[in-house]
Every structure is written in C-alpha cells, then in structure tokens.
Amino acid sequence: MDKVINVTEGDHIIRALAANGQIRSFAATTRNLTEYARQVHNTSPVVTAALGRTLTAGVMMGAMMKGEKDLLTIQIRGNGPMKGLTVTAGSPQVDTGMVDVKGYPLAADVVIPAKPAPVAGIRKLDVGGAIGNGVLSIIKDIGLKNPYVGQVALQTGEIAEDLTYYFATSEQIPSAVGLGVLMNRDNTVSQAGGFIIQLMPFADDEIISKLESMLKDMPPVTTLLDEGRTPEQLLEYVLGDFDIEINDRLPAQFKCNCDRARVEKALISLGKEELDKIVNEEKEEELKCQFCGKAYKFGAEDIKRLLTKAK
Ligand SMILES: [Zn+2]
Fold it and tell me: Would you call 132 helix, strand, or coil by DSSP?
C-alpha cells in the first residue's frame, strides 16, 4: 500500500524501512483494542497480557499481508492453566487501511503468582507460566487451496520470544519481536503495543551486528510503553541510527465478523441427531461467538428449520 493514512490517535500500526531497506519494521499501539478484548472476555490480568500481546502481534502481522482477503491466525496451545489462545487478523482494508483483529483465550480467569519484577515498579505477569509448554501455529490463508501452516514449539510461552523463534525457523527471517501490555491498578489496560523488526536477506553484516547490539541493550517494551512512547518513538528508539523512513500508518481495531448465518452453519454441522435432541428437549439454544461473546438464540422452530438442511 502506497497511500499514507494519517492516524495520530487511537490504535494504529506503522510500517517503516530502515538502513536503505535492509531492515523492515512494524510498531503498534493497541491499548484500546486490548482493553476492548479484556471487557469482552472478562480476562484476568495475566490473560489480558497474553491476549493483548498476541493481538498486538496479530495487527502487525496482518499489516504484512497483501491480498485483500488474506487472513492470519495465531494459535497458541499449551499445558498451562490458560491452555492457550487464538487471534486472527485481516490484511489492511483497501479503502481505509484498517486492520481488523479479534481473539479469545481458552481460559479467561487464570490467576497465578507474578514473577519478580526485572524493572522496579513494574509487575511482571507470568504469561509463560499461564500458557505452559506447547505449540505456536501461524496459519496464513491467502486464497490458495490449502492455507500455509507454520508450527514451532513454544520457547518461553511469553509470546514475543516464541514469535521471534517462529520467524527464524519457519520463515527464515531474523527478527526481533517486542510486545507489552501494562495494567492500571484496577486491572484495566493502560498501555499496549510492540514492534517487529526484520532483517532483509541482503542486509550487510555491519548492519546486522549493529542492530543486534542495539537490541541487546534495549529496556523491556513495557518500560518504553510506560514512558508513553508512540509507535514512531518506539522504532526511533531502536532504529534511530539506521535512517528510518516511515511508509504508512494504518488504523487497527478489534472487530468480529460473526453473524447469524455463520452460527446457523455451525449448528447445522452438529448433524440431524444432535439437532433432534435439541428439538425434543424443547429448550432454547443459545450460542455465543467465541471471538466477541455475541449471543445468538435459536428457538425450537429455528432448529426445526435447520434440521431440514442437516445430514
Ligand atoms: Zn463474533
């Protein structure tokens, strides 16, 4: 996308090149969509952090996609109490550049002890402990017959490290991923955001080692977010010495595209036998969208109608 969309307020992503195109980078601020997700799923702080980090990665990885109907899914499954989460993001919309994202945790109310703070005053929620050991899958549906699926073992379950490992092993792109969510005292979201920095295949050794030493000395993303840095300032902090050109700013939002027709399809797929049971029990069936919590009600008459379409 060549169009520069001016977004200065609200959630957004920036895309930038640095070092004459040898580095590509993304940064995002996602406070509003993370807070929205927290409210929809009524998440505990550690789950808010896990979901917010993954939604933040989702919008940036959505911004990497080019096709109008491309769809990206980040799926994390682990043996910890949270069990995992799923986030999906679209590509930037043609007219507005908007990147839609949605996501849900498998368990929303996990409470586990926080880890000792690496930086005084900042609570370090144990996201890795909540997720446990498991697998990160990236599914890219770019309109081909079969979607692309990349899978790696979770490295820490802290999500940023796991994505860094995914990019290096599955896509062979050396990357640095930083993701952070900060909570207010009342457990609402005060800041959320992050960055993805990637080396292009033709990057000079000199650029690579300079970038590596910059990243090594960098404070945690949460510290930078706590200082109120915008996505531009995040990238300037890391890539300031590399001549950044910011290419565009894209708005981002939490948006679910569920509707009654989609839910009906899910009901039909239960099959005749299951639907018969529902009709016989004469109860009203309420189905909730996993992503956004919207409830869809189906009475006995509705189910009877769906029965004619079921196998
Ligand atoms: Zn929904």
Answer: coil
CA of 100 to the centre of ligand 1 (A): 12
Residues with CB under 5 A from ligand 1 (ion): 256, 258, 289, 291-292, 294
Percent pLDDT > 90 in the chain is: 72
Compute the distance from residue 233 Cα to the ligand 1 centre, in Å: 34
What pairs with residue 197 in β-bridges? 25, 176
- In sequence order, the β-bridge partners of residue 77 are 84, 135
Query: What is the Å distance from ligand 1's center to 40 Cα?
Result: 10
- Helix, coil or strand: residue 197: strand
Nearest C-alpha neighbor of 15 from the set 95, 96, 92? 92
Query: Could you report the per-residue pLDDT of 247-306, keeping only the tens digit for each?
Result: 999 999 999 999 999 888 888 888 888 888 888 887 788 888 999 999 999 888 888 888
Q: How far is the CA of 75 from the centre of ligand 1 (A)?
A: 17
Task: Please state, in angstroms and rounded to a whole number, the distance separating the CA atoms of residues 123 and 125.
Answer: 6
Q: 3-state DSSP call for residue 93?
A: coil
Q: Which of 199, 270, 208, 267 lies closest to 21 in space, CA to CA? A: 199
For domain 12-254, the CATH class is alpha beta
Q: Tell me the CATH number of domain 260-307, given options 3.30.70.890, 3.30.360.10, 3.40.190.10, 3.90.1280.10.
A: 3.90.1280.10
